[in-house]
Design a protein that fits this description.
Length: 689
């Protein structure tokens, strides 16, 4: 039984833990360390192990034989070094090291300590990749190897995000297509010398490169913009070609020369038939196994087996050095492209210069637009500055861990747009609820007395019958059955309404509907999902209502509320009243270049199907399904849009005030019960919604 510990307890560590349980490894997790103590405690509860407050305590008390380093990349070297000095073998998530020097030092330290090192190159143990390597000799002498990878970052608009944000996502996924390409070139080349980087073109959102290994050419293509989503490796030789499709974990191709007339015809038929069958089998296999990362359990088995037997690491030191050398050169070119794209305005990290407006989550989809509408602002985010011209200052901080009040000195108002958008209840507790509490207390200590909070329309309880909901409609008493996102947003808003007043902070709450991006038009999730090509599954029928708002429009309304805080309503359900139905939304999307076709399905039918599928999957994995009110989440809602209309009109007309008529007071906001006089253009006082 091998004693295992973790440094870093984030999402990737949980994937490692799941893969360990799926593997045939005999191991016990004896401890975890993470700078974020709440993350460490959550992981410790899942793994059944203690959490330690320092790495020194982890090594002294838990005495692990293997340590998994699952920290952010900039902490890989420090964490892996500490593990090796502590006498453990080390598995490091990708990238192994950001620089060749750090990779060399780590490997030299491992050699001196007699320890093994492995990196998160799990694609090399993907069953489809192993089949590809096994059949490579049948292709004849290799001519070229093509590594193709396209990716869509979660929660990021490629068309709107800052260059540095795109570059960070690009660099994060770059190791996978690179190390698989390098591995094949190392195995199949007759050359004994190092690989050469013959040509390189880099932008913040993509990389094109040519590698040479003797007579074999390696072509690397990585893009955040190209579609469809793909991850593949193609070997082309003198007698044919084969492709490893990592997305489906299958091998594609006939592997014959394809020069004869019959081959040219039958190859397409054979490959098409094989692709359909293998893709179906792969999907069923992954659903049954629950494996998130193909090859990860197998790589763990190989590494743990090498530790137990005293054999070599399944990922050799020479391979790690080759990959890191090329990786470092590509990242340097990407960084140069970011500098070339970034505006010359200097952005000082944690500058002493005061900023009147502070925006949390200023790197995000909506947060970046808010910064644009209010520029210049001070931004807060967990990563480095995005370097956009809308910022005059940047604060690097993880709000879930707290915020130094001194960093808010000189601010007049905070726009809180930071929140978790994915993950489970633990992630939303940490990054929505805890982060908001820390921000409120930092504002109180810094003397910042105004807050504009970005919430969501999802916080309103489900409608009763054909009820028309407004700002006075309360939140659900128990939001957990509506999923982690709605639960987190409800708890975040409730926290603000209960604590801000006692801290002397005035608040305004904006609840946007589904956000649209005219630069990248697509159907929002509450209306439907893409099925295949242009075809979409639509929920309900074209005449049903839907609440949406353009992201730029939403940011402009938030900016108006910041600049006219005293006149802004305490709570606004923000939606575009000109888009009254799903059919209206289709027309608007087509006006921005969307070419989709929609197949409509009754929401009740889909809700029953989702519930049945979730129940079946839960029972298949030996657990009870979590409660999820699918029908209540998806059902259409009707809103009184008077408050939103008045604000949108004020923005459109450049007005400093709103039209006058009493708006509904929020039932759950005791500190927000002052009447607000608002009426949309063309309406009369006393009109019913």
């Amino acid at each position: 039984m091998i004693r295992v510990a973790f440094i870093g307890a984030g999402r990737m560590a949980h994937h490692h833990l799941a893969a360990l349980k799926q593997s045939r490894v005999s191991a016990t997790v004896v401890g975890v360390y993470d700078r974020a103590s709440d993350q460490a405690q959550a992981f410790a509860a899942a793994a059944g192990c203690p959490a330690f407050t320092t790495t020194g305590a982890l090594f002294a008390q838990a005495a692990p034989e293997i340590v998994h380093v699952c920290t952010p990349p900039d902490a890989h070297f420090e964490s892996a070094s500490a593990a090796l000095e502590g006498g453990a073998h080390v598995y490091v998530e990708k990238p192994f090291a950001p620089t060749f020097r750090e990779a060399y030092v780590l490997l030299d330290l491992a050699r001196a300590r007699g320890r093994l090192v492995c990196a998160g190159h799990q694609l090399l143990r993907d069953p489809a990749f192993e089949q590809l390597i096994a059949k490579a000799d049948g292709l004849g002498p290799l001519i070229q190897v093509d590594s193709h990878f396209t990716f869509r970052p979660v929660g990021v608009s490629v068309g709107r995000s800052a260059a540095v944000t795109l570059a960070q996502h690009l660099v994060d996924i770059l190791p996978h297509p690179l190390y698989s390409l390098v591995s094949v070139l190392e195995r199949c080349s007759t050359s004994t010398g190092p690989l050469s980087l013959a040509w390189l073109y880099a932008e913040p959102d993509g990389v094109q490169a040519i590698l040479r290994a003797g007579d074999v050419t390696g072509r690397l293509s990585v893009s955040l913009r190209a579609r469809p989503i793909a991850s593949s490796l193609t070997l082309t030789g003198t007698r044919g070609s084969l492709t490893c499709d990592f997305v489906r974990s299958i091998l594609v191709g006939s592997g014959n020369p394809g020069t004869e007339a019959l081959e040219k015809v039958l190859n397409q038929i054979a490959e098409g038939t094989g692709l359909a069958a293998r893709a179906a089998w792969s999907t069923a296999r992954r659903l049954a196994s629950g494996t998130s990362y193909a090859g990860l359990p197998q790589l763990f088995e190989a590494f743990y087996g090498a530790v137990a037997s005293g054999g070599p690491s399944p990922v050799s030191p020479d391979h790690l050095l080759q990959v890191t050398r090329i990786f470092e050169a590509i990242v340097a070119a990407v960084d140069t492209a970011v500098i070339r794209r970034t505006a010359p305005r200097p952005i000082a990290d944690r500058s002493d210069a005061p900023s009147r407006i502070v925006v949390s989550g200023a790197r995000g989809f909506l947060g970046a637009e808010i910064a644009r509408a209010l520029a210049p602002v001070c931004g807060i985010g967990r990563g480095g500055s995005p370097g956009t011209p809308h910022l005059d200052r940047w604060i690097t901080a993880d709000l879930s861990q707290g915020l130094d009040p001194a960093l808010l000195a000189g601010a007049d108002i905070v726009v809180h747009a930071a929140a978790e958008v994915s993950g489970g209840y633990a992630e939303h507790t940490r990054n929505s609820i805890d982060a908001t509490r820390h921000l409120l207390h930092a504002m109180h200590k810094a003397g910042v007395r105004r807050l504009v909070h970005v919430s969501s329309l999802s916080v309103i309880r489900p409608p009763r019958g054909r009820e028309r909901q407004d700002e006075s409609t309360p939140r659900p008493e128990d939001a957990k059955p509506f999923g982690p996102y709605t639960w987190g947003k409800c708890a975040q808003e409730a926290l603000i309404l209960s604590e801000a007043g006692t801290l002397g902070i005035e608040t305004r709450i904006i609840r946007p509907g589904a956000l649209l991006d005219r630069r990248d038009p697509d159907v929002p999730g509450l209306m439907g999902r893409r099925l295949f090509g242009q075809w979409h599954l639509g929920l309900g029928r074209p005449g049903l209502p839907i609440a949406v708002c353009d992201v730029e429009q939403c940011a402009d309304v938030i900016a108006w509320c910041v600049r006219h805080f005293d006149d802004a309503p305490p709570i606004v359900n923000l939606l575009d009243p000109s888009i009254a139905s799903r059919g209206d939304l289709q027309a608007r999307l087509r006006g921005h270049g969307w070419t989709g076709r929609v197949v409509w399905i009754p929401i009740s039918v889909l809700a029953v199907g989702i519930t049945a599928a979730r129940t079946a999957l839960a029972f298949a994995h030996g657990r009870r399904p979590d409660a999820l009110k699918t029908w209540s989440i998806l059902r259409p809602r009707r809103y009184d849009a008077r408050v939103a209309t008045a604000l949108l009109d004020a923005v459109r007309l450049g007005s400093d005030s709103l039209s006058r008529v009493a708006a509904p007071a929020p039932a759950s906001a005791s500190d927000h019960r002052r009447p607000v006089s608002i009426v949309p253009a063309g309406a009369r006082a006393g009109d019913k919604p």
